[in-house]
Structure prediction request, 246 residues.
Amino acid sequence: MKLSKIYSNFPDKFKPIIFNEGLNVIVGEITLIKNKNDKKTTHNLGKSILCRLIDFCLLTSSRDLFLYDHEVFKEFSFFLEIQLENKSYITINRNVSQSNKISLKKHESSKQDYTNLAEESWDHSKIALEKAKNIINTNLLWRIPKEYNYRNVIGYFLRSQNDYQNVFNLSKNKGKEVNWKPCLASILGFDGNLIYSHYEKEVLISDKQKDQKYLEKIGEKSNSSLNEKKQLYKIYRKFYQKRNNI
Prediction:
């Protein structure tokens, strides 16, 4: 996937940005200084904001975004054109006030302007957020385990400053390693499915060890309650069904 173009329905307020084929650099430059003692710098001029906007167009579910905090963006719709591996394109249209309704259009030529495109001309018009993610994921053909989608990958390319504290483990990665390590392995060129399978086996082993301890505990009793017998039966069924998994 390559970024091709990002624009809005208010081009006079947000000018279209065309991405180059190669390296793209965002430069913040101050052109007006009121006096010599002014301490303005090229920091906090909106360079990181563009990354957040791209993330919005790539259908992040997060509500912690500047677009939702200011009324001025209420009427904005943003369009992100991305290039697929087969050299075709998909344009993603997302409105700020109706951010859970997404429109998608696949096309062969780049640098399109669909700000005035009729609703019936979109391939998918105002569909649910999760459905749109699935359609995009299918078209991107990411080489990652099926348990993940492109949203799991995006974080490694659209990083905040906090995400550089650990090169491999992003700040947003919470919980178990299975939630992110297989996906990362795929990005680095390894077989992420093998990593995912490893963690699945670990869970199965842990579950069986817990069941074994429970069985040993019940076995020490001379009389077992009806509930305990039912639990024994459940454990037996689980062992029977999964006996070939390890």
